[in-house]
Design a protein that fits this description.
Layout (H helix, E strand, L loop, with lengths): L3 E7 L5 H12 L4 E3 L8 E8 L6 H4 L4 E9 L1 E3 L8 E4 L6 H9 L3 E5 L8 E2 L2 E2 H6 L9 E14 L2 E8 L5 H12 L3 E11 L2 E2 L11 H6 L2 E2 L9 E4 L4 H5 L4 E2 L3 E4 L7 E5 L5 E7 L6 H6 L5 E8 L4
Parallel strand pairs: 3-12, 15-18
Antiparallel strand pairs: 1-3, 1-14, 2-3, 4-11, 4-12, 5-6, 7-10, 8-9, 10-11, 12-13, 15-17, 16-20, 18-19, 19-20
Helix pairs in contact: 3-5
C-alpha cells in the first residue's frame, strides 16, 4: 500500500470529486482526497492525497497557484463562467489600452467576493447546492492577493492572461471584477490551472486514462512530500516511542535544519522514514544552548504521526 501525493490532471467536465472517485476505484482504497477544488468547466492540476497522504493535503491548499484564463467581455452569467445561465449581455467599448490597464490594476491585494456558485460552505452547506435551490448567499469579501499577471492577449471581446494568485482566489470572480471595472462585466470561458506550488501541468497524470499501475507508480511517497518544510532527524532508537505518540525531547534529535518557534517540521529517523509532523517549541538556534546546559526539554510537539510500515 502506497502513501503520498499524486499530481493529477483534471480534464474539462468531471468534478474534482469525480477524480477522487476514479483514483479510489482504480487503487481500491477509500482513503483518497484532493487539495483544492477545480471547477468542472476548468482543467489542470489537482493535488490528490492517497492513504496517509490525505493527512497532509491541508499544506497543499496553502500553496500559490498559476492559472491561464480566457474571459469574454460584456457577457454576464449567474456563475461567472460559461456554464451558467446568461443574465445579461452588454457592449464593451473599452480600448485595448483600457482593458490592459484594468487587468493590471488588480495586481496586489484586494477584497474579493466569492461566487454564489462555488465550493465554499455556508453553515455546513456548499454554496453551489444552496444556489441551485434558489438560496443565493452572499458571503463577505475575502482578502486575496494577485502576485502577478502576464501574457495578456486581447482579441476583440475575448481576453486571455496568466495569473499567479494566493490560495482561495477565484479566477471567475477576478474576471467579473475586471469586467465591472470596465463597465461591461465579463465571464470566464476557459480556465486552466497550470501549477500548484512547484507542481506543474506537464507532470500531471490524467487518472481517467491511466492504468492502476501507472497511477500507483506516480504517487510521490510521504518522505518526498512537503519538502519546503524544515527537516529534523531523530536517533533510530526513538522511532518506536515517537510512533507511539511520545513528544520529542532534545536528546532524541541527531540533526536538524534551521526552524523558528511555531513552525511545522518534518521528523525523520536515521533510515529516512517520515515519522511525524511536529510544531517547534523553540527556535533551532536555541537548541545548542539547551544541549550545552544539559537541559533535555521538549523541543517539538507532535501534530501528525505516520505509522506506514
Amino acid at each position: 500500500m502506497k502513501h503520498g501525493i499524486l499530481v493529477a490532471y483534471k480534464p474539462k467536465g468531471p468534478t474534482s470529486h469525480d477524480v477522487v472517485d476514479e483514483v479510489r476505484k482504480k487503487l481500491k482504497t477509500r482513503k483518497v482526497g484532493h487539495g483544492g477544488t477545480l471547477d468542472p468547466f476548468a482543467c489542470g492540476v489537482l493535488i490528490i492525497g492517497v492513504n496517509q497522504g490525505t493527512r497532509i493535503l491541508e499544506f497543499y491548499k496553502d500553496l500559490k497557484k498559476v492559472y491561464w484564463v480566457r474571459m469574454r467581455l460584456g457577457l454576464i452569467t449567474e456563475t461567472f463562467d460559461i456554464t451558467g445561465e446568461v443574465v445579461e449581455e452588454r457592449e464593451c467599448n473599452a480600448t485595448e489600452e483600457e482593458i490592459r490597464e484594468a487587468i493590471f490594476s488588480f495586481v496586489g491585494e484586494y477584497d474579493q467576493v466569492p461566487p454564489a456558485y462555488s465550493a465554499k460552505k455556508h453553515k455546513g452547506e456548499r454554496l453551489y447546492k444552496l444556489a441551485r435551490e434558489g438560496k443565493i448567499i452572499n458571503l463577505p469579501p475575502k482578502r486575496v492577493k494577485i502576485f502577478k499577471i502576464w501574457d495578456v492577449n486581447v482579441e476583440g471581446r475575448d481576453v486571455s492572461f496568466r495569473a499567479e494568485v494566493s490560495p482561495g482566489t477565484y479566477i471567475r470572480s477576478l474576471c467579473m471584477d475586471i469586467g465591472y471595472k470596465l463597465g461591461c462585466g465579463a465571464t470566464a470561458v476557459e480556465l486552466v490551472r497550470e501549477s500548484v506550488g512547484s507542481y506543474t501541468i506537464e507532470e500531471s497524470l490524467n487518472v481517467f486514462e491511466a492504468a492502476p499501475e501507472e497511477i500507483e507508480n506516480r504517487i510521490i511517497p510521504l518522505e518526498k512530500c512537503l519538502e519546503w518544510l524544515p527537516r529534523v532527524v531523530v536517533h533510530q532508537e526513538s522511532t518506536k516511542t515517537i510512533l507511539n505518540g511520545s513528544q520529542i525531547h532534545l536528546e532524541m534529535l541527531k540533526e536538524w535544519d534551521g526552524f523558528k518557534k511555531g513552525e511545522v517540521v518534518r521528523v525523520f529517523n536515521e533510515e529516512g522514514q517520515l515519522l511525524a509532523l511536529a510544531e517547534a517549541e523553540r527556535n533551532s538556534s536555541f537548541l545548542e544552548t539547551l544541549r550545552k546546559h544539559e537541559r533535555n526539554e521538549r523541543v517539538l510537539t507532535l501534530r501528525k504521526v505516520f505509522n506506514t510500515r
